[in-house]
Predict the structure.
Amino acid sequence: MNLDFFNFFKQTLNEDKLSHAFLIETSNINKFTDDFLDLLYKENLIKQKDIGSNLIIISPDGRNIKVNQISDLQEKFSTYPVNYKYNFYIIKNADLLNKSSANKLLKFLEEPDAPNIGILVTSSLVDVIDTIKSRSQIFKVIYEEEILDIDIDLLDIKDYKDVLKIKQSLKLNEREELIKKFEKLILYYDKMIDREGNYNNIKIFAKLIENLEKSIHLLKYNVNIDLVLDKLFIELRR
């Protein structure tokens, strides 16, 4: 959904129609979190921009968000907040919920014991478990200053020499750096779709996004980087 999340949140707050869960894909997780905390503070929904009686922020513990982190959340937010209308929890890097922690969170989403509002934040929506997506309102929050500064544009590929040049440049990145670079390109092309009026160009951007998402998936499953890049450029040249 391309509506402005912050305006939508304030509107539904005023109408007393807040969703129990929002899933946000953003180009900058930390900046979005800070901006959202600012909004909660200004609306007098929290006492401080930190963990408090009605605010919990969860970040990955190592490579994943673990079951015990969700269990702690459920225990702390099993009752109504004191002096506030809502409990708020923010889960950063929601794509790092593993199957067990995601299943634990699902029960919390479906059967809340109190007025709990979840904000799940990710830079890679495609890697968020489908059952989490289906139970959340999905928004994109794009910070243009983050995505417009790209050092590689796959649209620059005109011939085989360009392929070799860009591939060599990408191979210099470690796996995690390459994933972040591809995520940034996806957000960049997604923004271009919003601005584009030509249907054929939209199809080109959509194809780029689809192939980059597939490449990210392979990289996260530790497929050899050379093989991932070979497959990416074969698909792009079709």
In short: The chain has a mean pLDDT of 88. The CA atoms of residues 105 and 111 lie 10 Å apart.
